[in-house]
From TrEMBL:
A UniProt-annotated Pfam family: Iso_dh
PROSITE patterns with a match to the protein in the record: IDH_IMDH
Entry-linked SUPFAM superfamilies: Isocitrate/Isopropylmalate dehydrogenase-like
NCBIfam families in the cross-refs: TTC
UniProt-listed Enzyme Commission number(s): 1.1.1.83
Lineage of producing organism: Eukaryota, Fungi, Dikarya, Ascomycota, Pezizomycotina
Species whose genome carries this gene: Oidiodendron maius (strain Zn)
Protein name: D-malate dehydrogenase (decarboxylating)
GO molecular function, one term: magnesium ion binding
Keywords: Magnesium
InterPro entries linked to this entry: ICDH/IPMDH, IsoCit/isopropylmalate_DH_CS, IsoPropMal-DH-like_dom, TTC_DH
Family: Belongs to the isocitrate and isopropylmalate dehydrogenases family.
Catalytic function, reaction form: (R)-malate + NAD(+) = pyruvate + CO2 + NADH
Boundaries of every Isopropylmalate dehydrogenase-like domain copy: 13-356
Enzyme class: oxidoreductase
Amino acid sequence: MERKAPPGRPSYKIASIPADGIGPEVVSAGIQVLTTLAQALDEFDLNFEHFDWGSAYYREHGRYLPDDALERLKGCNAILFGAVGAPDIPDHISLWGLRLAICQPLQQYANVRPTRILRGISSPLSNCSRKDLDWVIVRENSEGEYAGHGGTSHLNEAWSVATEVSIFTRHGVERIMRFAFEMARSRPRKKLTIVTKSNAQRNGMVFWDLCAVKIAAEYPDVHWDKMLVDAMTTRMVLHPETIDTVVATNLHADILSDLAAALAGSIGIAPTSNLDPTGANPSMFEPIHGSAFDITGKGIANPVGTFWSSAEMLAWLGHREAANLLMESVENVTETGIKTLDLGGNNKTVEVTERVCQEIERLVKEKKG
């Protein structure tokens, strides 16, 4: 599920949007690691263009993005995103003003969240080994519960009404199902779990199920099953070894992937890819941990989620070997006990970053002989 690198010596323009909270800290760490990797391998070039879009920009301009933001992003090969959200701005304004304002118009409809237990990190699940928890959660990223349809009337009156309408289109559901089946097919176990809630949501979720059955017929080599979302949370905790690839709606996958990250050790290690599988628009890569204002400026933010997201970006651009080398470096470091507070360690963001950079240089030197 990745693209081929162009011939010759590739050069990529990467949009950097650190945004809010710990976003600037972890994006800076990610750029440092990516730059070290690119220079050590000497196989491709990465050029970063920095954008100051975030809550500070919103306070100054009354909006999160300038009018030409999307066109400027379309001139990039990929986007490295930090986090959005600030204590003084309602979350629905910041989320819809920046992140969703990029994902939806750029047709980044496939949100991919891999989860596994990295070396040196323990799961809170007793007796859960690395081989028991190695998942990919595919989240529909363009419609569903986050389609933005609905409204509020008679606000502050006793008869106030608010509606939030989930939108499921055949086009949207079938394309994410096909993407998920392709993802499952590309993995050794060729297994897909389709998450639903059609026992209670008898329109949109029943439609989701019907589309799933139709697309499944195209993939006879993929074993698939269906789980209600509430039962899926139990299965993730009690029987993680039975899960491989998962596809779920915008809301359900959002929740399940946070649980998955916690079960793998910390939400601080979890990556996200927001993909336009057609390649018509740049895809966006980000850690899932959010802006985390409670630890902003303390130098203890976990950069691993950004490192992993950066590796996913390299793989998407067609540099799987470089991506693997980056993740090997990260796991070699975590295995030695170099970890931030959320993982039970006492190392600062800068210490983890420097150690990963050193390990990249060591591995590349070893690789080159």
